[in-house]
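Lab channel / #folding
Pinned by the channel admin:
"Please post every new chain as: sequence first, then the structure tokens as a reply. Keep commentary short and put observations after the output so the thread stays searchable."

First post following the new format, from NK:
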Amino acid sequence: MRITGLGHAGMFIETAGGSILCDPVIGPSFFGSWFPFPDNRGLDWERFGAADFLYISHRHRDHFDPRMLHRYVRRDIPVLLPEYPTDDLERDLIDLGYTNIIRTEAGVPLTFGAMTLMITPLRAPSDGPIGDSSLSVDDGTASILNQNDSHPLDLEKLLSFGRPDAYFTQVSGAIWWPMVYDLPQDSKQHFAQLKREAQNKRAMYYIDKVDAAHVFPMAGPPMFLREELFRYNGTGLENDSIFTDQAEFLEHLRAERPDKSGHLFVPGTQVDIAGSDVTITQTLYTDAEIDRIFHDKWTYLAEQRDSRQDEVRAEESRRAAVLPPAEMLAAIKEWWEPLLRRARIIRDGVGGNVRFRIGDLDMVVDFPKAKVREYAGEECIYWYTIPADLVSTNIADHEIDWSNSIFLSMQFSVGRSGKFNEFLTTFLKCLSRDRIEYVENWYAEQSDQTEDVQLEDWVVQRRCPHLRADLTKTGKIEDGVLTCSLHDWKWDLGSGKCLTTTGHPIRSQRMTETADAPATS
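Reply from TO:
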């Protein structure tokens, strides 16, 4: 089997039973903010576009690049579609002319000649655009797991496909926290460090569980070439950013798990796999160029920035004309209020007013009353400042996921009066009736009725209130605080209160307070 790196989460898989083009992105994405790092324009995209199959893991534009697909990938290619609860990705692909769609079943292997594959989708509201997925492939000569951005909970089911020889996984996050928040600089630096540590911890959790012979960090980091965002590349010019690069994570892996075999995976990296034997060849960059990219990174980034402003300007020229404030307010009101009325659990979870300053429009979304109106001095729990052309473009495109379009662009600012509110972020990525109804039903089913288990001196509900991870496998307790290692969410076990976000309490009790504690499973 041969795997060629295409940049970010993209890869080209050549097997004894055919080839698969995975998540090809040239970009830029997210309103011209994210470019693949390092530069991947020098690859032979015509060759990769002639693959036997196309796999798009999820709808985020750093994985799904419509302009690239339109230019390089034939319309009759068989498309491996993850089984998601809403059909947004499928409709996007059909709109581009891709109608030869293979609708896979979640966690069910498919065989094409000598190649067997399995797509494992995630379906929680916080997983991508209500969905992210991983791809397992085996052709009898080797087995790989392309996990990209997904954070699967049921690893036993995922690994029932077989333990992979090579493991490709995200190590750099895709989030705007804390960079765009109105926080003191020392707080941004502190929170950025905590976020990088949490990302490393999560990546190490999966690396340990998957236990592959060879590990390839990928799916980031982005390269920011817009002038106002340039300082946030990597860990930031002022150490206030969260984007660990491939070389930095490999250094961390060597320090934490010297027994693991980690490899650099960049555009043009060719990985030939025969069982546990791996041969790696760099086909796009020389070793000296790679060394310079990672060890003289700011010089490399500055060269990329200075030479690619035409791409930034081209993206800006494609944005919609700015709507007048009254027209923008009317459009959002007509769109959002019917969704708010259907979103009782989300409204209760947000529990307050959210202010949006969009160019000359100053509006508030009253979640308890399901209303959108002009701002009139109300107390708000969150407040956003967003360029009017981004919102006008999303209105024109009827983009149903503002979290993963505007927010990942990092071309906005935000503040909040309390902790992170997952329900608000979920609403802003679910701006369609299908998504709202799915998420409301998903939340309604999460009232935990599962068994309790013993963790050290505590009895707690077995399933994490965040994404239902099995806490006997992911939970750790220190000084009365439970941490779920998948996403670093924390709970005070004495009160059951979530310390990470609003809501999501946990059922917990000290062992000494109950005579009939269950045994650990």
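NK: The first helix runs from residue 45 to 49.
TO: also worth noting, The first strand starts at residue 2 and ends at 7.
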